Amino acid sequence: QVQLVESGGGLVQAGDSVRLSCATSGRTFSSYAMGWFRQAPGKERDFVAGITRTGAFTYYADSVKGRFTVSRDNAKNTVYLQMNSLKPEDTAVYYCAAGPRIVDSGSYSRGDKYDYWGQGTQVTVSS
């Protein structure tokens, strides 16, 4: 069983930056494709970013391109989400997810392709 623990959320102002971290248990982190999703109140969970096992390729939702950066450190079993130029509409609970079955680029944005999820961390952006 893989456990994922997000951290780094909080209350920030529009234009600020925040870095989220997702630490994972186990010794097979480098075998997982990783993703970040978010869910705003009353809305469905949306894809934010994904990263391949080696970190060579990354994928982003259009709404965050140019502002967010996903990265990973396989030696530390951790994936990160650097969020810059935050907007009030970025307010949501952010979740990281591990996808050992993901093999194609089209799957990164699909929540049903991920097998393990963290508990989420709240990010609130005030205007």
Commentary on this structure:
By secondary structure, this protein is an all-beta fold. The chain has no helices and 11 strands. It has strands at residues 4-7, 10-13, 18-24, 33-39, 45-51, 58-60, 68-73, 78-83, 92-99, 116-117, 121-126. Strands 2, 4, 5, 6, 9, 10 and 11 form a 7-stranded mixed sheet that branches. It has a 4-stranded antiparallel sheet with strand order 1-3-8-7, with no helix packed on it.
Essential attributes:
11 strands, single chain, mainly beta, 127 residues, 47% strand
Summarize the model shown:
With 127 residues, the protein is mainly beta. The chain contains no helices and 11 strands.
Q: Proportion of β residues?
A: over 45%
Largest sheet: 7 strands, mixed
Distance between the termini: 40 Å
Whole-number mean pLDDT: 96
Q: Share of helix among residues?
A: under 10%
> N-to-C SSE series?
EEEEEEEEEEE
> What Rg, in angstroms, do the CA atoms define?
13 Å
The helix/strand class is mainly beta
Number of strands: 11
Overall geometric form: globular
